[in-house]
Each structure stands twice: as structure tokens, then as C-alpha cells.
Specification:
Largest sheet: 7 strands, mixed
Radius of gyration: 28 Å
Structural class: alpha+beta
Strand content: 15-25%
Strand order of the largest sheet: 3-7-1-14-11-12-13
Number of strands: 33
Helix content: 25-40%
Shape: globular
Length: about 800
């Protein structure tokens, strides 16, 4: 811990920094959560979708059996617009995603028709009464085939299959010319799903009393969902209310407008009855396979010690068939371009990033947006540099990391790092795994024992980035101020209202802690309203690790705005001036005398004769807007280190040790931070070792059940050891930084490095996730062949798993 971290003696029992259990856990542990799947309404109709079995085909005709015509809807019957996600990025090619397929289908699982009935089973029966005549078109199952296409593009009006291509060149030639060596490396990530416990979930009905469309939606962005519904249904926003109840996980999957959500909202608007759709697991695996698929080709221009002077990179993203609203494919492409240099002091940078359209589900933001890929790429390049110059991988990293003395630091991609000690974090992570002991164990390994490997990685997580950043990415909605409402109730409790929404972040607890820090009101008496556009101030929502900084900052400002009002009334009730009192533990005190916040609330609401004549007529309620002083984001960072054991006979990898040293500024609640880190790390382990959605040559998904799509379970997730440092951001309330995505960023990089370290004596280089036993064994077999060829003078030594299926 560094000098800036609060000691336990200075942390209030319930304030910022207190290790409180989450308030919201109690209802979930008792099965009392309020999820869309639990809701019941008179006359509720369940919705099912008929989905395309083909990846790319024209619709020559659709026939609906007479028995089903009243219960089946096709696209031409819907008076709503296609979901259109514009972007101002130069050269960007726009796509429109129809709520139901129109003209042609562009991926397996695209919805062609929808049906409704009293039960899901009956609705599915109606979809079986629909016949579709498909005319097969050329299929683009991977980004390389798609880029080479000359006609029959994914979108007929396009000039090629490229959504957008971005590039950057910052003094590259100048610093590349100073290099003494070059090192090249390729690495890639396979496509995967997000797999929240609850998939897409939406229930919509018409509120005749309010004359409003009410949409219950499992959403991270209820206010933006309302914006989208209004735009594509051609309704005023005042006639739409979006309510997001408890959400069973999201990870980015629920921060876009899905076609199924628009369909259900249209049904409720049109028929004035309640309708619900719940995505099943097979649908999610087929239509939700939409993230992580990146390829990187990197060349580092270095000196003889391994200092990276200039970086040349080409990044390709398999963006799928549609650009999602509101963030578009440009978000992933822009994040990859801007975050590849990561925590390193690179002076020259040249990079081209391309988002390619294929016949797969549209790419969505997933926990860590692009940064999991860029961390993997730059860390593997660091390993390649270490091999080139004959040094330990962490020695090269320590020489290249941004130093504490350089902070605040603006890097070659114009990222504003607001503070921290990156090298110290890496050194501590190495100490935690006892790196020298592991090296000694590797040297003393006996035949037949598992191979040991060490992996390290350091990453930066850009969190709570705002207006200027999203405007540069050209997204349809640009975040600005977040607002919060704070109101003292008549009994002295506190009501908070914010526009972000929780899907597991613990906001009901952490926001209450912020309020307690300022007003001293017991956390149990602080109630948070969120997820309801009819009851909360506007926010673009929960994504990009922004909620604690943005809405948490607004809560802080609102509570600070109430403070002088409480002091004015309290001091009057005590018969002294405001300068003579202070608010401590929910009491306005003057010496041994005090009045409580509840006493003050009683005076305002019930006994106004006790109020001063010049009392602020705004009362005990306030709404404020907030954004940080610098809107380019606050930068969390962490260093991670792992020790793995690899069985050379089976290719199975066991994680023996995993250490995290993280710095997310001032910690609001260590328990919540650690929970986020552990959950994210588990997801990152999935990316690294297990999760993959493979496709055949016709873009048919090959893992449509959890028997084929593997995820890590409790036995596969090690005991994750976490240490904290705290370098408060100078730009945010309390110095807080976001960190919700951090745990998921590093594991692929750490574990790939560890596996390659274990295999280094066998001249095997793994460069693709997931690193399954089959892939590892195939790579080892390739290496054996390569070694045999070299012995006979026919080939090279290193086997590259990049081409292994």
C-alpha cells in the first residue's frame, strides 16, 4: 500500500473505504430478487422467434399457415424503423439491423418472424407453421475471406466488407530509425459469448392511465434504451417509460438495443397488451457470439537492451454483420487503436485497425472493450522482445513501463494517465508469486513432472471517459453530465436517485457509503432508486467502468449540496450560528448539544415553525449534474502474475497461483472491488483457456449448448490473491477511478505468457486463445516435426499455433 491509502483508523465505519457487505445481497440470497422472468400480468403473451438456419441468403418468400396468421408477425407488418447506428468516423459504412429480417439474412440465428401465445411453447409452435424460401449467397465465415470479397457483400450497398478503418502515426519513422533491432509477433483471440446468467429479457405493455408504453428491460442503459425505442418506434420519449429491475448480469451485452427488444416494444405499442421475451441459452450462444475476435500483427523497433522505441501494428476485428446501436463497431476499433500502447513508454507509434463485416452476430462491447486484446498483444510482444535480447520478461517490462516520476503522463496515443507507480505494482506481483523460487523449481523439475510456467502482465483501464472521447469515436449517443437527486425524507432517511443501473456492481451499497461519508446517515437508512426513466434523472448508463466515478460523483455533489441547508436549520434550532456547528454522524453538533438529521427533517416537513426565517426554500432536496475535471477518463491499472502447471502428456493447464496488484484510486468499498476483480478474472480465464464459438466454412456456429461451449467452473478458478494500492485521481470526487472491467483484461495475457514460459524448452509458441489442451498438444506435435526437419536441414524450429484449428 502506498502513502496515499487511507489507514483503517481514518476510514469511517460506513463511509468511503469501509469493507461493508452489499445491502442488495440479502434479497438475492433469499430468492427475493425482482427479475423480468418472475413477473406476471393478466393476459401476458410470450414471444418466440423463428431464426434463420443460413448465414447469408435472400428471402425469396415467407408463407404462414392459416392457423398461425393472427399470431405470427413478419417484417412488412411492422411500422417501425430498422435499428440504425450512425457514426461520424471517416469512411464508416453504416448498417441497418431490421428487427425482423427484410430482404435477406446475414447470420445464422437472425430473427425472420416472431410469434406470440399464452405460453412460450405455444408461441414456438406457431413459428413451426412458417415456411421460408431461402436463396443461398456467398458466406463470409472469417474476416480474411470477407476482406477479399469483390461482390455479394454483407450489405449490398457497400463498396466492400469493411465497416471502418482507423489509423494513427505518431513520430513512428523518427523513432523507428533509432532502433537497433526489430521483433515481430502475431497473436489472436477467438470469438466468444458473454453468457450472463440472465440473457436478453424484455416485457412491455401499454399503460392506459399514463398513455405510455412501459418497457421492462434487462438493461444497463435504461435512459438510452428509451431514446432508442422512441427513435425507432416513432414515439415521443415522454410516451415511453423504461424500467430495468434486477438484472442477472450484463457485461456489455445489455448496453445496446437488441432487435428482439424493439420487436416486443412494437407488439405492446400496437396491440396494447403485455408481451414478454426471454432469451434461452441456445439462442444466446448462437446470436450472442459476438465479442473478442481480434487479430494482431506487431513489430517492435527496439534497442539492444529491449527498450521499445517504436511500435508498428495492424489490428483486425471480426465485427460480424451489424453495427450495434448506439456504440457501433467504431467503439471496438477505436479502443483497440487508442489503448494498444498500454502502460509502456513508447515514443513512436503507427497502427491501422480495421473492423470487417462477416456473417456472424454483430460485435458488442464486452467487459474490457478491446483492452483484453490489446493487453494480450502488447504483453506477448514484450515476451518476444525478452526472447530476442535474452532477458527475463519482467526485466524488459520494468525498463519499458511508465515510471512514477513521469506521472501525470500523456502517452503516444494521447491517453492521460493521472497517476500511479506501474513498476512498483509489477515488482510486488512478482514478489507475491515468489518468482525466484518458481525459477528454481523449473530448473529442478524431474522427468514426468508437470512443466511450470510464469506469466506477468500490466494493463491500464480507461474508465469513466466522457464527451470528448466518445465524440471522437463518433457514437450515436455521447455521454455528458450524470445527475443525481438526493432528498432527506420526513423521518431523516435519505433517498438517492441516479440514472445508471446496477447489474452486480453493488451500487446500492457504495453510493450509500458516499452519502454516509458526507452526511453521516446510516447506510441502512439510505435508499437508492435506479433503473427507471420515470423516477430518475438522465444518464447514458452503466458501461466503461463509469458508474462510481460519474453517478457516484453526482451523489457526492448532491450530498454536499444538502450539507449547508442542514447546517443552517440545525444551527438555528440550537440557537447558534452556522460557523459554530458541524455535522458529525448524522447530527448537527454544538459542543455537547445536538439535533439529528431526523429532527431537522421534522422541522422542514412537519413543524416548519422551527425553521429560520431565511431558510433556503429549495428544502431538503437537490438534483445536481457532475462530470470529472478531465473527461478523457481516469486510469486504473494493475499488474498480475501467475504460475501454471502444464501436463505435457495431456496439454491440461492448472493455475497454481494468481496474484493481482491493483490501483483504482480511492477505494469506495474493498469488498466490492475484490469481488469485481475475482469475477472479472474468472471471465478472463474463460477467454484464455476455455471459451470459444467456432464456425464452419458456412458460418454455422458449432457450439450451441454448454456441452460444447466450455466455461470455467469453481475448480478451474484459483484462489486469487489481491493487494491494493491507492493513488487518488486528482480529477474525480474522492479520487475514485472505475475498475469494473479490470479483472477480465489481464488473464489471457498472463496465462499465454505462462504457458509459453512452460513450453520454452520445447520451442513451442502459443499465440491464439483459448489455449485448450488440444491446441497445446497440436502445437507441441508441430514443434517436434519442426525440430526433426531442422535436424535434417529442412525447416525452422518454432511452431506457431496461429494456424492450428
Amino acid at each position: 500500500m502506498n502513502d496515499s491509502e487511507k489507514t483503517s483508523a481514518t476510514v469511517k465505519p460506513q463511509g468511503v473505504g469501509a469493507r461493508l457487505r452489499r445491502k442488495e445481497d440479502d434479497r438475492h440470497l433469499q430468492g427475493k430478487g425482482n427479475f423480468i422472468g418472475n413477473m406476471q400480468m393478466p393476459g401476458l403473451q410470450e414471444v418466440a422467434f423463428l431464426r434463420s438456419p443460413m448465414a447469408h441468403a435472400r428471402l425469396r418468400g415467407i408463407t404462414v399457415d392459416a392457423q398461425a396468421q393472427e399470431n405470427v408477425i413478419l417484417r412488412d407488418a411492422m411500422d417501425c424503423a430498422d435499428i440504425f447506428a450512425p457514426s461520424t468516423l471517416p469512411g464508416y459504412q453504416n448498417s441497418s439491423a431490421p428487427p425482423l429480417a427484410s430482404g435477406k439474412v446475414r447470420l445464422v440465428g437472425e430473427a425472420v418472424a416472431m410469434a406470440f401465445g399464452p405460453t412460450r411453447a405455444e408461441a414456438e409452435d406457431f413459428t413451426e407453421m412458417v415456411e421460408v424460401d431461402y436463396e443461398e449467397l456467398p458466406v463470409y465465415a472469417n474476416m480474411h475471406e470477407a476482406r477479399q470479397a469483390q461482390d455479394n457483400f454483407v450489405h449490398d450497398s457497400w463498396k466492400n466488407n469493411v465497416f471502418v478503418q482507423l489509423s494513427s502515426d505518431v513520430k513512428f519513422e523518427q523513432y523507428a530509425a533509432k532502433a537497433q533491432r526489430t521483433v515481430s509477433h502475431r497473436v489472436s483471440l477467438s470469438r466468444q459469448c458473454m453468457l450472463p446468467m440472465e440473457g436478453k429479457a424484455v416485457l412491455a405493455y401499454w399503460d392506459h392511465q399514463a398513455d405510455q408504453l412501459v418497457v421492462y428491460c434487462g438493461s444497463q442503459i435504461p435512459h438510452m434504451h428509451r431514446t432508442g425505442f422512441a427513435q425507432f418506434l416513432n414515439l415521443d420519449q415522454s410516451r415511453i417509460r423504461v424500467i430495468s429491475p434486477d438484472v442477472g448480469g450484463a457485461f456489455g451485452y445489455k448496453c445496446v438495443l437488441h432487435p428482439e427488444e424493439l420487436c416486443v416494444a412494437w407488439l405492446a405499442k400496437t396491440y396494447k397488451k403485455p408481451f414478454r421475451y426471454m432469451e434461452d441459452r441456445r439462442e444466446h450462444l448462437i446470436v450472442g457470439a459476438n465479442t473478442r475476435e481480434h487479430e494482431y500483427t506487431l513489430t517492435g523497433h527496439i534497442d539492444n537492451t529491449g527498450r521499445l522505441l517504436a511500435l508498428d501494428a495492424e489490428i483486425t476485428v471480426d465485427a460480424g454483420a451489424y453495427s450495434v446501436w448506439p456504440f457501433t463497431v467504431g467503439l471496438e476499433v477505436g479502443q483497440a487503436l487508442g489503448n494498444l500502447p498500454g502502460p509502456y513508454r513508447i515514443q513512436g507509434y503507427r497502427c491501422t485497425t480495421t473492423g470487417v463485416a462477416t456473417n456472424k452476430p454483430g460485435f458488442m462491447p464486452y467487459r474490457g472493450v478491446a483492452r483484453t486484446g490489446v493487453c494480450l498483444a502488447i504483453e506477448q510482444l514484450m515476451d518476444a522482445i525478452a526472447r530476442e535480447v535474452g532477458r527475463e520478461p519482467w526485466e524488459v517490462r520494468l525498463d519499458n513501463l511508465v515510471r512514477a516520476a513521469d506521472m501525470p503522463y500523456v502517452n503516444v496515443a494521447n491517453k492521460h494517465y493521472d497517476g500511479g507507480d506501474y513498476p512498483a505494482g509489477l515488482r510486488r506481483a512478482l514478489e507475491m508469486i515468489n518468482v525466484q523460487d518458481v525459477r528454481a523449481r523449473q530448473q529442478s523439475r524431474k522427468p514426468g513432472e508437470p512443466l511450470l510456467g510464469i506469466g506477468v502482465a500490466t494493463y491500464t483501464e480507461q474508465s469513466a471517459h466522457g464527451t470528448s472521447v466518445f465524440a471522437a469515436w463518433g457514437t450515436a449517443v455521447i455521454p455528458g453530465f450524470d445527475q443525481a437527486m438526493a432528498r432527506i425524507s420526513a423521518d431523516g432517511s435519505l433517498e438517492l436517485s441516479v440514472g445508471v443501473h446496477s447489474h452486480g456492481q453493488g451500487m446500492e451499497t457504495s453510493f450509500a457509503q458516499i452519502a454516509n461519508e458526507i452526511l453521516g446517515i446510516d447506510v441502512s437508512r439510505v435508499n437508492l432508486t435506479h433503473g427507471d426513466t420515470g423516477r430518475t434523472p438522465f444518464s447514458t448508463g452503466t458501461y466503461a467502468s463509469r458508474s462510481a466515478v460519474m453517478s457516484g460523483g453526482a451523489v457526492s455533489k448532491a450530498c454536499k449540496g444538502l450539507l449547508p441547508r442542514l447546517l443552517q436549520i440545525g444551527s438555528h434550532m440550537l440557537g447558534v450560528t452556522m460557523d459554530e456547528v458541524e455535522l458529525v454522524d448524522g447530527q448537527v453538533r454544538h459542543g455537547q448539544r445536538h439535533v439529528t438529521v431526523a429532527d431537522i427533517a421534522d422541522a422542514w416537513y412537519i413543524n416548519p415553525q422551527k425553521l429560520p426565517a431565511d431558510v433556503d426554500p429549495s428544502g431538503l432536496e437537490i438534483t445536481v449534474g457532475y462530470k470529472p475535471k478531465v473527461d478523457t477518463g481516469s486510469f486504473t491499472y494493475a499488474s498480475c502474475a501467475a504460475v501454471i502447471a502444464l501436463d505435457p502428456q495431456t496439454g491440461i493447464v492448472r493455475i497454481l497461483d494468481y496474484a493481482v496488484v491493483e490501483d483504482c484510486g480511492t477505494i469506495l468499498n474493498p469488498l466490492i472491488v475484490e469481488g469485481q476483480t475475482m469475477g472479472g478474472t474468472a471471465q478472463g480465464i474463460g477467454t484464455a483457456l476455455y471459451e470459444e464459438m467456432p464456425y464452419d466454412d458456412t458460418a454455422q456456429p458449432l457450439a450451441s449448448t454448454l456441452a460444447d461451449y466450455l466455461m470455467p467452473g469453481a475448480p478451474e478458478v484459483p484462489n486469487i490473491r489481491i493487494e491494493h494500492t491507492q493513488t487518488p485521481s486528482p480529477n474525480t470526487e474522492f479520487g475514485a477511478k472505475g475498475m469494473g472491467e479490470g479483472g477480465a483484461i489481464a488473464p489471457p495475457a498472463v496465462l499465454m505468457s505462462a504457458i509459453n514460459d512452460a513450453l520454452k524448452g520445447q520451442n513451442v509458441l502459443v499465440t491464439r486463445t483459448p489455449m485448450t489442451p488440444r491446441r497445446i498438444l497440436q502445437a507441441m506435435a508441430q514443434a517436434d516435426l519442426a525440430n526433426a526437419d531442422q535436424d535434417s536441414g529442412q525447416g525452422s524450429v518454432t511452431a506457431n499455433i496461429q494456424e492450428v484449428a
